[in-house]
Amino acid sequence: MTVNLHVHRPLHDNETGLYSMSVADDAVLPSFKEPLQAQRSEPARSNARLSVGLHPWHVASADLDVALRRIEEAMPVADAVGECGLDLFVLKGLADREKLLEKQLAAFRAQLRIARAFSKPVILHVVRAADLVLAIREEFPEQTWIVHGFRGAADIASRLFEAGLYLSFGPALLGGKDTATEEAFRAAPADRIFLETDDCEIDIDDLYERAAALRHISKEAMKQITEANFHRIFVS
Ligand SMILES: [Zn+2]
């Protein structure tokens, strides 16, 4: 089994990880339990897991009360809350930026409270908001937080690690252009990292190959690292 931490499609046969769904997506929602139940009924895919949340991109147009109720309803079959979090990039240049940021903050905190009530880990979407997330971390110091699709410099990554967070790295490691993220990945402690394809049509194995090369270890050793981390949070 290869850990693919965060995807927006059912997991492949050789993968274990979280199928992430947004409660704002009405096309997906009425049947959000079915993909997981179908996956779990197949022995080969019994490691399939589900995360349910309100993505910060959907906060502006969402009815927050409805969204939060849907997340709570999903908790009995979900393994994590998310992705949720803060995205300051999408607010750039908007006239009602302050109001929308308040709404993102309210949605994020409400989802963290749900995670606390149901003792679930949280998958975070964080774009240009590391400082805000670290400030909010002080209100929820006991939770397991995994920042998905991390992109950024090693100093930001190390501040997130110091606060106890996990970081999941994605397609940014491919292509050889995002040297800051590559550097952050190389310096990251092995017991705090994941790999993910997110919504990209790439092969998770190619990502492992690249990640292993960056850390000068074998692909097998890279797989053991994320498997141990996944097991610690979601299995044991
Ligand atoms: Zn995603």
Name the features.
alpha/beta; 236 residues; 8 helices; binds zinc ion; single chain; 41% helix; 8-stranded parallel β-sheet; 8 strands; TIM Barrel
Model description:
The chain has 236 residues and is α/β, with parallel strands linked by helices. The protein has one domain: Alpha-Beta Barrel (TIM Barrel). It contains 8 helices and 8 strands. It has an 8-stranded parallel beta sheet with strand order 1-2-3-4-5-6-7-8, with helices on both faces. Helix 2 links the parallel strand 3 and strand 4. It is globular and about 45 Å long. The two termini are 17 Å apart. The model has no long low-confidence stretch (mean pLDDT 91). Zinc ion is lined by residues 6, 8, 20, 83, 198-199.
